[in-house]
Amino acid sequence: MNPKIQKFICIVFIVANTLMLLGKKEGQPEVKLQVNWSQYLSKHDLVWNKIPKDYFEGDFN
């Protein structure tokens, strides 16, 4: 590989890593997930009218 290309790739890598480190914030995440899981999952219960005979009649049809 051409030494000039290697030097360019190295500089790009260093600049990219520096920018990522400068943009990183320490501390608590800004998005807070507040979910009532029992209420949420109660809306997604599977209702079966009959018991599937084999795998291909199951949930993955």
Strand and helix map with partners:
Blueprint: H1 3-23, H2 37-42
CA-atom Rg in angstroms: 26 Å
Could you state the order of secondary-structure elements as H and E? HH
When the domains are counted, the total is 1
Indicate the overall shape.
Answer: elongated
Provide the low-confidence segments as ranges.
none
Overall number of strands: 0
Helix content: 40-55%
Biggest pleated-sheet summary: none
Query: How far apart, in Å, are the first and last alpha carbons?
Result: 52 Å
Q: Roughly what fraction of the amino acids lie in strands?
A: under 5%
Provide mean pLDDT, rounded: 81
By DSSP (H or I, 4+ residues per run), the number of helices equals 2
* Category by helix and strand content: mainly alpha
What can you see in these coordinates?
- It is a single chain.
- The chain has 61 residues and is mainly α.
- It has one domain.
- It is 44% helix and 0% strand.
- The chain contains two helices and no strands.
- It has helices at residues 3-23, 37-42.
- The model has no long low-confidence stretch (mean pLDDT 81).
